[in-house]
Amino acid sequence: MMLRRDGDGGHRHGRDRRAEVVPAPAGRARFTGDAPAVAVVGGGIAGIAAATLLAERGARVTLHESEEGLGGRLAGWPTRLADGTTVTMSRGFHAFFRQYYNLRGLLRRVDPGLGSLTRLPDYPLRHSSGLRDGFARVPRTPPLSALGFVALSPTFGPGDLVRMNPRAALGLLDVRVPEVYERLDGISATDFLHRIRFPEAAHHLAFEVFSRSFFADPRELSAAELALMFHIYFLGSAEGLIFDVPREPFPAALWDPLHRYLEGHGVDVRTRTPVREVRPLPEGGAVLTTDDLTTRYDALVLALDSGGLRHLVAASPELGDADWRDRIARLRTAPPFLVSRLWLDRPVAHDRPGFLGTSGYGPLDNVSVLDRWEGEAARWARRTRGSVVELHAYAVAPDADRAAVQAETLGQLHRVYPETRSARLLDERHEWRADCPMFPVGGYRDRPGVRSPDPTVTVAGDMVRTGLPVALMERAATSGFLAANALLERWGVRGQTLWTVPRAGRSAVLRRLAALAD
């Protein structure tokens, strides 16, 4: 995979000028004559990206999604409150970072100016000890971003830098993919931070927050993923940790427009249609079985979450080879997490941020005041003179008493924002899920790549190995485009150009320093 830098000397479509391009596979512009029939299994970000590109090139695409709507883990659905209002419930807050070049490129299909997103001014953090931090003041140009974080953060005292292990820390100055997994996949994020001797306060206030964005306990998370995040946000790009959020609920802002876009390009979108089995054919392609139909396709994109992929592969004994199937079977799912959305009868204090990351408050990991930035919530809050607050609790023990966790999470909100203690709860919704990928210590070798043993079957999702420095929603979008590119390349059709933060540290001086760690 060849990469080159963006040579325009500036920000194209909001990209850092040092972003690197992954050239599209060459070929004719689109299919002519008989186009192949392709099934995309899974209607989340990865599946939508794959279906979009394939349809734009003229393939006959059928998109299968088991839920009622598109969006995957960012889907939304209507719910009726006690006051009779119909609102949209979802699985909660997601940050659309400026480094999500390929995801943002997907959204530009239906929203060229990305007007459906709005910028939040900071990524504030708060620990129960009283420590507070944020990233708005941190310089965004590497390496000043990393130096500024250390200099401005209250978690680094004068003696902390002296006590750090410089040899262990140097590796963060030049993170590369996949080399970072070869170096760090064998230890946990917690052990890696202890090896560097980062101050304990920084563990809890900053790095633990990053770890838990993977819905995982940092003691279980591969250090390679933490190092990759450090590269993406501090030393690989100049966008920093400033992010956008949708102005309206996910369906209205994102998925309904993309659904219409797909159908406008001839995609047969089949929601509430889970695929039960895949049977490969000797001549290539496969037969897909749903509850109602058995249909032959020339190629497949499997864009499922870890559990869904495990289940479908287990139900399809002829799919792939023994080694690939064994590795899929070993994929793990992160522990359960809770999203609590509360409709309160009075506003929270006017100076509360739209989003706050928390640590040291029991199970509470972050608080969102939705009416600060989401139009639907703001309209409800204005009409009722109330507020809409969302709480997240990640990596909950599978055997935990869920009612007790919900109650404790609410109690911790009262500690974080004391004015909510006197608020009356007009309505509430609690979503418990356990379907995010787990990136455990030593687990990288089992994660699938985009290409499977069958050249007519590709894989996409946020757990897929891409060979690029991407994570979370951006990994999902990037892998979806890569999965479509792999199929288009076989057919001699031009693919999608992709973008990424640099695959190595941006500074030659820092790269030479990092080499000392080896």
Automatic annotation (TrEMBL):
GO terms for molecular function: oxidoreductase activity. Residues 1-11 have a biased composition (Basic and acidic residues). It comes from the Bacteria. Pfam families: Amino_oxidase. InterPro entries: Amino_oxidase (IPR002937), FAD/NAD-bd_sf (IPR036188), Zeta_carotene_desat/Oxidored (IPR050464). Residues 1-20 are annotated as: Disordered. Residues 45-488 form the Amine oxidase domain. This is Beta-carotene desaturase/methylase. The gene is crtU.
